């Protein structure tokens, strides 16, 4: 997790606005607007769009449901009141088809809209919380039950209503909410026989199976029973509500008198233990029945359920362990297994409660059997493959353990701890693994535990069990040392699946919960009495107490763990530890402020900023953080970006005590690097990057601390830096195979090697260290040559930077020889994908060759060769980028290549990827800024530089956002300093800014500059015609506003100048669709929108336009060109001298082979002439059939000649 901004913070800030908007929009959805009366009338129908908008306002709260709590009292009662008001006033009209609704299909019945919203509240905040706000007056039980039966039975009357049936019948959200509401109403303390009459219907014929049901059973109970049985096997959420309703019914006192609890319990087991001749129930029916049993055991009183305890336990265990098809179905369902765990937990808890009272209904033998079977099942379920089952088993085991006597509870805890010790290996310093038996001979306290062989899923269940036990304060203090050691091991647990994904996150999350629970439930005195040696932490020092060791472990997890949940969980546990045990942790309060819950959300920030701030608080945190960064969570992390951040963090931490700590860090890193296997490419990558970051830190410290350069620590680090060059001459040096074989991940080795060479070269030059030997320099140059020949961007970028740093260390002859070698490679790779690296490398070393001007000239000539259109686009982009960023800034005279950049700015190369020429234009724009800076004060400006500014101005108006932004930034820099341009009123710095109306209004002020107006219009036409919808709207609005603010004579003058320039653009780009089509359509837009009256004096300009438009679509099969021409013809038809010619062209297009062109022409021609012949003809018919009508039109328009 490396989010740009914390989503929780965003939600917290926006929650008030979301709730306010919901509260403001809700009344209009529920109630009719009636003025002058306090009586409110509920609507019959609610608009779907409004309902869904309200649902979307609530759904973001799933991230942080508690934010809704203060508002539930005001948000929920209106929904409940409106539902009940509808129930009273419109209940019988639910199934009626609204004409408005059936036509538009955009309305819900009001109960559906309310239930959608209530269900969303349940989904966000939980049904237990929301159900408290439902009305539980007994008088509504009858109405609610009747409404459910009636509404759920609605069917379409005829085939015409079939399409509307989904609008009329209850949907699952309605059934769920109404069933939950019915179960809430069953809490009424009165007998059901007094709450309804006997005329209430029984909706389904499914009560024959209950032969034991007494005849005096109230009809309302039978109705509810029938309803619940129908939905208890449903596949949707209704099943949950139906099981709750059935359990609530069975547990009522008046129903127990009818023996309904026993009868329904036996019925439930009969369903999941069918006889041979009965069809097996579905998995949903099994889950529903098991959920019903679980609800009975959870909500029932011990005295009421006592006769059934042993029966339920044995039957449940029998179903789970059986071999029948139903047993197989239950065993294959994670949800079913989870519910079984809950049943066994509840029943075992009841059995223990009865035993405590010495109740004779449960014997000691029965209790012993129940305990043994239940605990054994829970321990086995801790290793279940599905997380919900493990969660349920760990919670169940902790609850049962809490109810046991201390001796038996201790045995259970020991069993959990012993299970954590299984399959653990031990690791020597050299990385070899030994068995626990061998480890005990050597001494386990000097070996590192290796958890690679343990079952990660089982460990999660076991650690979670210990955490739940700690949360309930079940373990005695004498067992805390072993528990805490397991938690610390779990906090650093990690395993990878066969696909490389992490499977250790759940274990670490459970360990965070455990430490948090321990901090909360045990006193400071109890924890301080523990011997520090019993918790052999990974990073904590031996001389500190247990609490300080735990704090260190949590800090390392909060700063470095790859999972955002673990970092936040560790932060929360650390806050609890420090808050509950004050004055026990070094720099406790500042530590909480630094390792903040929100600060550690972003990993890059946690690794670099938070880790540095934490280490600076106290020296006790520095070494553990450094060790953690050098482990699997840091430079051994599986993803490259995390390793880069970890390396940067190590470099930052190395400056803790300036040169002293740098010496220690470099020594550790070098020892680690030489011990890493060559096959462990990721760790080598991270280690080399860390060495490079530390060398960079040394160079910076050397420059900043001139007075400490002669200290022994500084000299020791200098000596180490000099010897780091030896890496490239040792057996651990990157080989040619490491940099070329794809199986060796060469891009990682190339990046790390380049970064280290770059850092060493810079340090050698800056600090004046002894240069490496010539063989070492040659080897590093060879490595960089291989790196720069790669095709991935990161290798090319880092290696070209490294070459720029290394070049000053080479002799002039070696420099020239290297450059000539690159020339040779580039020529042999003409039109091949390789060569980008050499091009960029030539640019980076250009400034290093100041004394060799002939070589510099050769570099410029060579790079210009690769900007030609014959070369691959990737290499052309690299060449232009090289010229713009690496060569131009260091050239004394740029006139020789300035013309090339005009060509680059007009590059519109396209391939199957689209406008790939935009990549070249973007890079060329960067260079224009440099070229223009050198001519700011020269007046008049040369045509070349006017051309450059014009190109940038055109690109600042064009339709591509990325090009437009870069062009504007370049133009803005020039505009601010140029004295011959209008004043710059506003600046724009972001993508969104350069798509606004204000932006284009600013650009239109340049139309007064004659040499800028034509390129300005050329770019503006592409945005106003071919851009995205928002861009078209913004550019046209800016143009309209600009013209409307001008006086009438001036406006006419500007428009004619625009049309003349557009004629020039069209004439120059007649065959280029990119500019010709927008120019033609832009002409039509200007004439239609802004020239109401065409003066006779302007006739030549329009005649020229008419001629150019004809040329633009002459013999063209491009429909866009033809349609644009038709728009201009329609606009030009208002010119009297051109009208006949225009009508002749348009009638001719009525016989065009393309139906779309004929139809478009007919539409515009009708607008121009209002001819009835055009209006009623089908212009999509073949041209042969239309010829007679076209001839009639010509006669009508007098166009025969």
Mean pLDDT: 85
What's the CATH topology name of the domain at 907-1142? Leucine-rich Repeat Variant
- Helical proportion? 55-70%
Assembly type of the shown chains? single chain
Structural class: mainly alpha
CATH class of the domain at 907-1142: Mainly Alpha
Helix run count: 57
- The N- and C-terminal alpha carbons lie at a distance of 76 Å
Outline type: flat
CATH architecture label of the domain at 907-1142: Alpha Horseshoe
GO biological process, one term: microtubule cytoskeleton organization
Pfam family, one: ARM_TBCD_2nd
Domain Tubulin-folding cofactor D ARM repeats: 355-422, 445-589
GO molecular function, one term: beta-tubulin binding
Summarize the topology.
Elements: H1 7-30, E1 45-47, H2 48-58, H3 72-89, H4 99-104, E2 107-109, H5 110-125, H6 127-130, H7 139-152, H8 165-168, H9 172-185, H10 219-231, H11 238-250, H12 253-256, H13 260-272, H14 283-299, H15 302-305, H16 309-321, H17 325-332, H18 334-356, H19 364-381, H20 387-403, H21 406-420, E3 425-427, E4 433-434, H22 436-442, E5 448-450, H23 456-471, H24 480-491, H25 505-521, H26 524-528, H27 546-560, H28 564-580, H29 588-594, H30 603-617, H31 622-629, H32 640-653, H33 659-675, H34 681-704, H35 712-724, H36 746-767, H37 774-788, H38 793-806, H39 812-828, H40 836-846, H41 853-865, H42 873-887, H43 895-905, H44 917-933, H45 943-955, H46 961-977, H47 997-1004, H48 1010-1026, H49 1029-1044, H50 1048-1068, H51 1073-1090, H52 1099-1112, H53 1119-1132, H54 1136-1149, H55 1155-1169, H56 1172-1176, H57 1183-1196
Antiparallel strand pairs: 1-2, 3-4, 3-5
Helix pairs in contact: 1-2, 1-3, 2-5, 3-5, 5-9, 7-9, 9-11, 10-11, 11-14, 13-14, 14-18, 16-18, 18-19, 18-20, 19-20, 20-23, 21-23, 23-24, 23-25, 24-25, 25-28, 27-28, 27-30, 27-31, 30-31, 30-32, 32-34, 33-34, 33-35, 34-36, 36-37, 36-38, 37-38, 38-40, 40-42, 42-44, 43-44, 43-45, 44-45, 44-46, ...
InterPro entries: ARM-like (IPR011989), ARM-type_fold (IPR016024), ARM_TBCD_2nd (IPR058033), TBCD (IPR033162), TBCD_C (IPR022577)
Keywords: Chaperone
Pfam family, one: TFCD_C
